[in-house]
Amino acid sequence: MNAREKGFLLLGSHLGDPGRKPLTPAQLRTLADRVRTMERPAEDRELEMKDLLALGYGRDMAGRILTLLSQEELLEYYLQRGRQAGCVPLTRASEAYPALLRRRLGADSPGCLWVRGNLSLLHTPSVALVGSRDLAEPNRAFAWAVGSHAARQGLTLISGNARGADKTAQEACLVNGGRVISIVADGLVKHSPGENVLYVSEDGYSEAFSAQRAISRNRCIHAMGRMTFVAQARLGQGGTWDGTLKNLRSGWSSVACFRDGSEAAAELERLGAYLVGLEDLQDLGSLPEENESLFDR
Q: Are 282 and 254 contacting, i.e. CB atoms less than 8 angstroms apart?
């Protein structure tokens, strides 16, 4: 791990300490952009208070950045524990970091992802699926069909490992010999990967589940696949609705929503998603990868 990767971890991760206050992805990107404008000596050196003040930071923020960077012993301890559990960090400076996340999310892409399992799955063609935890039976059949067809058509399925749509699609994909990337909102160490499964966690590998983590990881699910399927959503409520709305506003990936006759599906179509049925899943490659959002007009 090089110095730049360590810097991303020191500045952008809790490192197992819930009381630690790392920079947000946007703050981290802003700092990186400002540092690139510095006139640096031939030999690399650590940032100092005078550097940060010259870059426009106040003393409080500059002191916070320097404190985060100074905690190298905590970082080494956290990295050692991660290695023992088979957890690997990928910072935005790592070659293996998903290029789509960097490109589609920009400054909001996670400073670090922790992964456990088959790392090569990050560089395979993929589609994503999101949906409610409590599914109607037709919607469950749709989630199962997306997972099954992804496997049969050689596409990795990206989902969030939650009860309902996520686990239904993931199970269908795996029983049909497919590959799954599961972006979890709880402790990465709780999940045991197989050859065809990669578990991914934003920020760290040991953090407990929280609603905020579940909401935050939704942007990664939407941005990592060539398209995102919505098995079921509640109109104006819940993480599926919130994440899909943000996708349509930001244009991370095209959105294909199950044609279930619901008010939520009709509204998502009005906002720029397109509606699909089971018959449309026979050739996922024929589905459009871009759709015009209401927010583009």
A: no
